[in-house]
Design a protein that fits this description.
Elements lengths: L1 H18 L36 E4 L2 E4 L12 E7 L3 E3 L2 E3 L2 E6 L7 E3 H8 L7 E5 L2 E2 L8 E3 L3 E10 L6 E9 L2 H7 L10
Amino acid sequence: MKKNNSTLVTILQNFNLFNQNIKGKQLKSKPIYSRNSEIKILRNIKSTYLNQSPIGIFADGELIGNQSSLDFINSDKITTLKVEKKRFEKNGINYNGKILVEMKPDYKPKFVTLKSLTEKYLTLNKNPILYQINEKVLESNETEFLIDEKFILKIIPTQIKTSNNKIEINLIQITTKTAENIKKANEIRIIGNKN
């Protein structure tokens, strides 16, 4: 799994060399945290891919989204990755190239839109929806972003009020079946009682 993730990162880094859309930005090293750490204020932390032109991600020939989709593909089921640098347009979006992902022959992903996933498993009110997959808040269109339904571990819907308590939104937290998420989901937590 780590090999596939490293390969994906390497491909995206190399792809960025051709795009050159991060002008004048310097990479900062990730801080190391401990129990004695001071509070860190991280402003405008966005996706690694935010300042890059979109790259179309195709899984077994199907366009599933831009480069942020790579975070939600079951990397244990990937056999090959191929990069095509030719620009193309799809649904009014211009992409700077493609990453073609081939899945193992015995694995057939079931890609669904976030909207159809929500409609299938949840009954929500008409309030706005904010999607979070693992720890990442999505800024993608719910009718265009595709996720592998077979790779979903759990869906947690929560209605939360905004800071002014006048607007309520539906937060849909989706957890994927990564080894780390499965381990965390199976941990036994003992909650104490002060009495």
